[in-house]
Model the fold of this input.
Amino acid sequence: MPVEKIKEYATVYTIGSVGYSMIEILWRGFTHWTMALTGGVCFLFIHIANFRLTGVNIWKKCLAGSTIITLIEFVVGCIVNRLLHMNVWDYSKQFLNIMGQVCPLYSILWFFLCIPTFGLSRFIKQKMFPKN
Done:
């Protein structure tokens, strides 16, 4: 992988990590270091999807983005909460939750959060890494 692409992905990961942590602190009043890692991974996957889905309308991109985030959240939740017993979150009281790790409410929130996230991704690519 070219060095410039590695720099782009590292930048996207870092912005996702810090950004998600800030959102979670605003939403819940606190965060956990595993959520910073997860946020970075999510934003990186969203960023990659954004440019692989060029020409796809924003609503379909948001559905793909919400699915990506929900799947990553489920995998991380199974590892962090169920396997390692870190108890970072518990959605077991939420409607239609799956194993207490994901629920439709947050998938819907991720859907709408993808709108500015795809815009930020495009901005990063165009302004910081236009040659990649």
User: Anything to note?
Assistant: The chain has one domain: 3-128. The mean pLDDT is 97. The CA atoms of residues 32 and 112 lie 23 Å apart.
